[in-house]
Design a protein that fits this description.
Purple Acid Phosphatase, chain A, domain 2, 6-stranded mixed sheet
């Protein structure tokens, strides 16, 4: 009798763990932020931006369907994708393109690369197919978004892993990339950049709002502590999820959608970011 009870408890525990992992990796969480700034033009009041990051060839139909449904429901003005649309360890361009095909008519889409794109031979194919869909690829350039008579800057920079300069660290590469973009600093400026760990660089460049990813929320998150480990930040990292502010700069870090080397999320559901702009 005692043996049966023990086996039953083990089975229940395994079933619970399996359900928990399934839920944590396929149940989308929508996180909303209100960004209030006097530099935001009044014409852009209630301007809604959806951020997708670190899709990593997500093959879960449940998760993909939730993404499409939520993006449609939110009625964004634009959609921004902040890198790692694919995964270099199991690259499948078709998965990424099929997903983009489902959301391309909801709102204009703006994309920047992540470190995984820099590792794959299929990147040129991915870019061509995104162009064919009408996705806007921002490779160290700016687009001025106009509403009525007002303008905001939208800058996108390549992931620093595309650089062949081994002697130069990521902060310097990103600083040079931002400086190379010819944009009017009098306008409210939004930057799409995969890397959150160089937040101080964004602050020094006086960027108003940054959308970033890469950290996967630390993959495993502990209550009251946060993420455990992030590439380029190490253990108990600082920039993993949410909103960070310093001086005139705000950075939004998405926990992302998919997984890469570590196949599970724990206490860290896939995340879709919705940001609304408001003039102070």
């Amino acid at each position: 009798m005692k043996k049966i009870v023990i086996i039953s408890l083990i089975v229940i525990l395994l079933l619970f763990c399996g359900f928990y992992l399934y839920f944590q990796n396929t149940a989308l969480q929508v996180t909303k932020f209100l960004i209030v700034d006097s530099k935001i033009p009044k014409s852009f009041n209630n301007y809604r931006i959806i951020q997708i990051s670190d899709f990593h060839n997500t093959i879960s139909k449940k998760l993909t369907n939730q993404l499409v449904e939520e993006i449609t429901r939110e009625e964004p003005n634009i959609i921004v994708i902040t890198g790692d649309l694919i995964d270099s360890r199991r690259t499948n361009v078709d998965v990424a393109i099929n997903f983009l095909g489902k959301i391309k008519d909801i709102a204009p889409i703006y994309y920047v690369s992540g470190n995984h794109e820099s590792r794959i031979s299929e990147y040129e194919t991915l870019k061509k197919e995104m162009n064919d869909l009408g996705i806007n690829l921002l490779d160290n350039e700016v687009i001025e978004i106009q509403k009525k008579d007002d303008i905001i800057n939208l800058i996108g920079i390549d992931d620093p892993s595309f650089s062949n300069t081994i002697e130069v660290d990521d902060c310097e590469i990103i600083e040079d990339q931002i400086k190379s973009v010819n944009y009017d600093e009098d306008f409210y400026t939004i930057l799409l950049s995969h890397r959150p760990e160089v937040f101080k660089t964004y602050v020094n460049e006086n960027i108003n709002l940054i959308f970033s990813g890469h950290a996967h929320g630390g993959q495993i998150r502990l209550p009251f502590i946060g993420g455990i480990f992030v590439p380029n930040q190490g253990f108990f990292p600082k920039y993993t999820s949410g909103k960070y502010e310093e001086k005139n700069t705000t950075m939004i870090v998405s926990r992302g959608i998919g997984n890469s080397l570590f196949p599970f999320r724990i206490n860290n559901r896939p995340e879709l970011i919705v940001v609304e702009l408001k003039n102070k």
